[in-house]
Write a structure and sequence with these properties.
3 helices; 7-stranded mixed sheet; globular
């Protein structure tokens, strides 16, 4: 398996199928800020098995932090529970640190809260229903201040 930066287009189909299955194939991808970094874990044939995007964005409850938001975390259903999400999250965290971030935050789907908690994220506030998806979410965050910046790797 290979962990590397990918393009939004490389992960669009996986994100649509996992996160927005009600949208038809070919639906245009969401656009992200210029500084967005798309992370992917790919199999040896180049198929994206897991992905997310991170970009600088003010954290509403910690506005002074050099924060980056995590969005569009998706893992191929057949590969869920096999460590792919953890690899994606670890690579995204490296990208945030390299970009000067000291905090990573997200609107976690309720079904993913335990995953993020296992990876050091802390819940903030009360659960809410996200208007875009109609699904319950919980704000979560993780401080990166005391974590060293590891050297980036292109494969694992």
């Amino acid at each position: 398996m290979i962990t590397r930066l990918i393009t939004s287009e490389e992960s669009a189909d996986l994100r649509r199928r996992v996160l927005r299955p009600n949208l038809p194939a070919g639906t245009p991808s969401r656009s992200y800020p210029d500084r967005a970094r798309h992370v992917g874990v790919l199999d040896n044939a180049g198929t994206v098995l897991g992905t997310c995007v991170v970009f600088p964005a003010r954290c509403p409850w910690q506005p002074a932090a050099a924060a980056w938001q995590l969005r569009a975390m998706a893992v191929e259903p057949a590969w869920q529970g096999q460590g792919i999400g953890g690899r994606v999250l670890a690579a995204a965290t490296v990208e945030v640190k390299i970009g000067g971030g000291d905090l990573i935050w997200c609107h976690a789907r309720q079904t993913a809260v335990a995953f993020y908690a296992r990876h050091g994220f802390i819940a903030h506030g009360e659960p809410f229903v996200q208007a875009e998806t109609g699904l319950p979410h919980l704000d979560m965050w993780r401080s990166l201040v005391r974590e060293p910046v590891p050297a980036p790797t292109s494969s694992t």
